[in-house]
Design brief:
Strand content: 15-25%
Helix content: 25-40%
Number of strands: 25
Number of domains: 3
Distance between the termini: 39 Å
C-alpha cells in the first residue's frame, strides 16, 4: 500500500476479533498490507516452483491475487496486467454462479469461458475461499495459461478458419472442481481427454490448486492474528486509499477529449486491416475510454472479449497515472472502458478469441497514443511486437507441446527450450537498424531462428506489425516491419502473420520482430549516443548518417564522430525539411496518427 503511515485516526480496539469502528491504526494497516502482498507473491512462487509446463515454470505466464470477502481484488502478484484486469470480473462471475453462502472450506471454482474470464480458453481461473472460525475472510485466486485445451490447432490459438469458440477447445463455465478439498475425478478426466498435452495441463492445474491452498492458509493465519473484522476493515481502507490515489493522479491530467487510431495488420491472409479507434475523455478525477469506431468482430480467432480489452486499457492508464501504487478494485473504479457490442474489441459470443493476446499491444498502445498529447513526458512510442506462435508435431523422442509467450511474462531461456522441446535455437539476436530513429530511439527488434526436429510439423503463426509499423511519437520514426520466414535465405518462404503452415523435419522458422518506434526528432539525438549504438551494432554507420545526420569516421583503429561533418549534414537535412514543408496557410502533410504524432 502506498504510504500506509499516513493513515489517521485512533487505534482500534480488538476484543474477540472485533474492531472499533474508528479508522484502523497506521501500523496495523501497514503490516496487513505488507502481509497481503506477501501472500500474493507466495501463491505465485508456489505456482512457479510446482508447474509442469515451460510457459508457466519458465515464462511465468500466470497471475495471482487476493480478494476480500465481497469478491473485490485487494492485492495482486507482480505478473501479467492482462490477467489482473480480467480477474476481477472472473471472480464476480464465479461467485454469481456459486454464491458465497454455498461455499465451504476446500471448495474451488474453475472457469475458462472467454466471455466470463480473460477472453480465451487456455486461461484457467481458479477461485478458492478462505475461512477462519467459520467466517469467510477472503479469496485466493490465480489464473494460468495452459499449453493446450483442444480445438482446431495445437495450442488452441488458431486464427485462420475459426468462426466460433467451439472450434478453439474445451469451454468450462464456473464449475466447482474441488469440493471440501476433494478433486472431482470426472471433471478432471474430461479436461484431460480434451487436451493434446494432458500431463502438462493436469500438472499445471494441480499446481494452481496447491498454490491456492497456501494462500488460503496464509489468509487464515492473518485473520487469526488480527481478527476477521480488523482484516476486513484494513481491506476496505486499502481499496479506498487506492481509489483516492488514482483519482488524484487522473486529476493531474488536463481535462479533454483525446482521440487516436492504430491498426492491426489484418485477421488472416487476404483480409483487411483492423482499426483500433479510441477516444479517451478525462473529466476531473475520472476517465472514460471508448473504442467506438473500431472494426467489427471478425470471422476468425482475432477478437478480444471485453474483459481483455478492459484489462490492457486499465494497464495503460495505470502506467501513466499511478504506476507504483496498488492495482486493486480501487484503481479500477475511476476508469470506464466501453467498446461497441459486435466490434472485434467486444465481440458477441460465440466469436473466436484464442489469439487475443496479439491484440493487447494495440489496445495498450492506442490508449498511450491518445494520452500522448495530454502527458507527452510520460509516454513512449509504439513498441516492437510480440510473436506468440504455437507449434505441434510428433517428437521422435517424446511427446510435443505448444509453446507460448505473453505480455509481461519472462522470456523462456534457450536452454530450457532446447532441453524440453525438439528444437535447436540457431539465432537469437537483436536486428541491426530495426529501431525507429528518434531523439530517443526505439528498441531493436529480436530475431530468433528455430530449427525443428519434429515430424508432421504445424506452425500456427500469431504475429503482427508486419504491415503497419510501430508508430513513432513527436517526430520519431516508425520501427521496421516484422516478418516470419521458413528456411531464411535463397528459396525462403515468407509466412503471413496469421497463417497456419506445415513444415518438415529440420526446417528453420525465423521470427524477425519489428523494431519499436522512436520518440522525438532524430536530429536532436546526441551524436555520442549514436556512436555508442554503432559500436553496439544496434545502428549501422550508414543508418547513423541517413537517419540521424551523424557522420562516423574510421581512423583505422577506432570509430569516432566527425563533429564538423555532422554539424554540416544536420544543417543540410534541416534545410531540406524546411523546403519540403507546405506553404503558409496550407495544412501540413503529416503521417497518419497511427504512424507518428508530429
Amino acid at each position: 500500500m502506498t504510504e500506509p503511515h499516513r493513515a489517521c485516526g485512533r487505534p482500534p480496539t480488538v476484543e474477540g476479533g472485533r474492531a472499533d469502528p474508528a479508522t484502523i491504526d497506521p501500523i496495523t494497516l501497514g503490516v496487513i498490507w505488507g502481509a497481503l502482498q506477501s501472500i500474493a507473491v507466495e501463491i505465485g512462487t508456489t505456482v512457479h516452483k510446482t508447474a509442469y509446463s515451460e510457459q508457466a515454470r519458465e515464462g511465468q505466464d500466470f497471475s495471482v491475487a487476493v480478494f476480500d470477502p465481497r469478491g473485490r481484488m485487494v492485492a495482486q502478484g507482480p505478473y501479467s496486467p492482462g490477467h489482473m484486469g480480467a480477474m476481477s470480473f472472473a471472480v464476480k462471475n464465479a461467485l454469481a454462479a456459486h454464491p458465497v453462502e454455498t461455499l465451504r472450506p476446500g471448495d474451488a471454482i474453475l472457469l475458462n469461458d472467454p466471455l466470463l474470464g480473460s477472453g480465451h480458453l487456455p486461461d484457467f481461473f481458479v477461485t478458492q475461499p478462505a475461512f477462519h472460525a467459520g467466517d469467510l475472510v477472503g479469496f485466493a485466486v490465480n489464473i494460468l495459461h495452459h499449453t493446450d485445451v483442444g480445438g482446431q490447432r495445437p495450442g488452441s490459438q488458431g486464427v485462420e478458419g475459426i468462426f466460433d469458440y467451439f472450434q478453439e477447445g474445451l469451454r468450462i463455465p464456473p464449475t466447482k472442481v474441488w469440493t471440501e478439498y476433494q478433486e472431482d475425478a470426472g471433471i478432471v478426466g474430461i479436461i484431460a481427454a480434451n487436451t493434446r498435452t494432458p500431463d502438462k495441463v493436469l500438472g499445471d492445474l494441480r499446481a494452481q490448486r496447491s498454490a491456492l491452498r497456501v494462500g488460503e492458509l496464509r489468509l487464515r493465519e492473518l485473520a487469526a492474528r488480527y481478527g476477521r473484522d480488523v482484516l476486513a476493515q484494513a481491506m476496505d481502507e486499502i481499496i479506498a486509499r487506492t481509489e483516492a490515489s488514482m483519482r488524484a493522479a487522473i486529476g493531474e491530467f488536463p481535462d479533454g477529449v483525446y482521440a487516436f487510431e492504430d491498426f492491426m495488420d489484418d485477421y488472416g491472409p487476404g483480409t483487411e486491416p483492423l482499426r483500433v479507434a479510441v477516444t479517451v475523455t478525462v473529466a476531473r478525477d475520472s476517465m472514460v475510454i471508448d473504442y467506438a469506431g473500431s472494426s467489427p468482430q471478425t470471422p476468425s480467432g482475432m477478437n478480444s472479449y471485453i474483459n481483455y480489452t478492459r484489462s490492457y486499457s486499465y494497464a495503460a492508464v495505470k502506467c501513466l497515472t499511478d504506476p507504483f501504487g496498488p492495482m486493486n478494485e480501487g484503481a479500477l473504479r475511476p476508469i470506464t472502458v466501453t467498446a461497441p457490442e459486435g466490434s472485434f474489441l467486444n465481440p458477441r459470443p460465440p466469436a473466436g478469441g484464442g489469439p487475443r493476446a496479439i491484440i493487447c499491444y494495440r489496445t495498450f498502445e492506442s490508449v498511450v497514443g491518445a494520452l500522448a498529447r495530454a502527458v507527452p513526458d510520460r509516454v513512449a512510442a509504439a513498441a516492437s511486437h510480440m510473436a506468440n506462435p504455437t507449434f505441434g508435431g510428433w517428437d521422435r523422442a517424446d511427446g510435443c507441446e505448444a509453446m507460448s509467450w505473453a505480455f509481461n511474462a519472462s522470456n523462456i531461456p534457450v536452454e530450457a527450450q532446447e532441453a524440453n522441446q525438439p528444437i535447436v535455437v540457431e539465432r537469437f539476436e537483436l536486428i541491426r537498424d530495426s529501431a525507429g530513429a528518434g531523439k530517443f530511439r526505439g528498441g531493436c527488434g529480436v530475431r530468433r531462428d528455430l530449427r525443428f526436429l519434429a515430424d508432421e510439423g504445424k506452425l500456427t503463426n500469431l504475429s503482427d506489425r508486419q504491415k503497419v509499423a510501430p508508430y513513432g511519437l513527436f517526430g520519431g520514426r516508425p520501427g521496421t516491419l516484422g516478418r516470419t520466414v521458413i528456411n531464411p535465405g535463397p528459396g525462403e518462404r515468407v509466412v503471413h502473420g496469421k497463417a497456419s503452415r506445415e513444415f518438415a523435419y529440420g526446417d528453420v522458422v525465423s521470427f524477425q520482430q519489428p523494431g519499436a518506434g522512436g520518440y522525438g526528432d532524430p536530429l536532436e539525438r546526441d551524436p555520442r549516443r549514436v556512436l555508442e549504438d554503432v559500436l553496439d551494432d544496434y545502428v549501422s554507420v550508414e543508418a547513423a548518417r541517413v537517419d540521424y545526420g551523424v557522420v562516423i569516421k574510421d581512423d583505422g583503429f577506432d570509430l569516432e564522430v566527425d563533429e564538423r561533418a555532422t554539424t554540416k549534414l544536420r544543417r543540410a537535412m534541416s534545410a531540406e525539411r524546411s523546403r519540403a514543408a507546405p506553404p503558409a496557410g496550407h495544412p501540413p502533410k503529416v503521417p497518419a496518427p497511427r504512424l507518428s504524432i508530429p
